[in-house]
From TrEMBL:
GO terms for molecular function: glucose-6-phosphate isomerase activity. Transmembrane segments: none annotated. It comes from Colwellia marinimaniae. It is an enzyme of class 5 (isomerase). This is Glucose-6-phosphate isomerase. Catalyzes the reversible isomerization of glucose-6-phosphate to fructose-6-phosphate.
Amino acid sequence: MDISSLSQLSKVAQSRSIISLFSGDADRVENYSISTSGLYLDFSKQNITNEELNQLFELATTSKLADKIKAQFSGEMINNTENRAVLHTVLRSPNEIKRKILGANADEVIATEQHMHEIVDDISSGALLSASGEKFTDIIAIGIGGSYYGIKVALSALTPFHITGLNAHVIANVDGAAVEEKLTKLNAATTLVVVISKTFTTQETLLNALAVKNWMLKNSADASIIEKQWFAVSTNIVKATEFGLLKRNILPMWDWVGGRFSLWSAVALPLALVIGNENFKKLKQGAYEMDQHFQNAPFEQNMPVLMALLGIWNRNALQYSNLAILPYDHSLRALPGYLQQTDMESNGKSVSNSGEKLAWKTAPIVFGQEGTNAQHAFMQLMHQSDEIIPTDFIVCLKGTSDLPAHHQILVANCFAQSEALMRGKTITEVEDELAAAGVTSEEISRLAAHKTMKGNTPSNTLLLGEMSPENLGGLLALYEHKIFVQGVIWQLNSFDQWGVELGKQLGNIILSAMNGGDTSMLSASSQNLIKRFNLSLNKS
Ligand SMILES: O=P(O)(O)OC[C@H]1O[C@H](O)[C@H](O)[C@@H](O)[C@@H]1O
């Protein structure tokens, strides 16, 4: 069994209606659903049968998935283009596992966790005060990419767990307007800053950190304010010290934690400062439980493996190019953006681990938005264009607001969309409906085609009992493992991101060209754009 033969296998599926799969199988929902770690997955609305699923399990076996899972968790150098292990999972495991996997290096990891814990305690209790002797009120987290999305998704998901009274503000993009928007609202004397950069060389983060540093120094008479109010999280202690931070305020990271998998490390310091140590522990505990499930459950009952294989089926057998992430929960509004990075930066590749061109498609284009907003925007295309877009619906059974009627309607809309996307509406159904409403036959023939819906869109529905740190941890770990499994089956390295480098290199060339440097290696189009930009500067 290999990926290339999947498209042959899918011939029957291409012409079959998903809804027909329910009529012949009274147990479909029971057999096509699974629970673990506070999550329930219903995948019965996927266009797949038992025989086809079995072929996918065989594919997982021939891909040596079980060995690859063991290799990841035991710390083998599976990121072979950067010669690194991939051990973010160890950060959320008990200390005895840390010691077993990391050996002597576990000491630093455990000590960092403890240090982070103390910082959170000291700041929340007021034992650690600002340079002016006041209690901190706000935190600015500066970071981008993996040093941003995890914090952002968890901060917005866990709003009811913001218990320490500190407000977090996240600055990522290199746009002065975004920085100023935050700074104008803040008091430098009571604001704590955390710079998060694994490399401490990222242009955007360093420029933003400098802008915030200048703002703070301008607004304080105390030159030691940076030493007293700034923390950093980085593998590059030297650079962070050069920036002006005290060594004891720099929490280490390790090269075996990829940026987009780093929420479980000290990168989460701004989050822990807001939700408290206990809630941060629960977030890690939820992820750890998912890790246990992923390592131990047989593939047939393994949620990340199932979701990965269903994704492979949709991408490589049915040849669908996209994946929509539709959380019907305001708390998960940042999830689509987070998953765009974790999925597309991990698996958006076209060469194998050994550098050969892959003969199959890899990561889907991931996009999404919170429901029901999405219904009033791009979901028109999902219902009526030719494009079939597999979807993950995510919903919490229990809402967090005091408006229960809202929650019921929200959930009803979520369930209605998965049903509508699967069921569609045939032309005959439209004609009958219009006739029953007394519409004339001329009008029926004019309108019927416009009102039909293609249906047959496969979806998963993920139910969370409620939004909690544990359940969020489980959900994020679920997607991390799903992405890993897909990388294994596609035979690529999910843990590097060389694709972002060329843009960075050319960014430097263009910046120098804007300042009078050589433009000859650039296209006429880019030269013209630079000229227009420089002309606009001269005018103002
Ligand atoms: O944490 P940093 O070293 O500042 O890196 C921030 C981000 O930038 C890189 O270009 C990568 O695309 C991301 O994976 C990374 O998370």
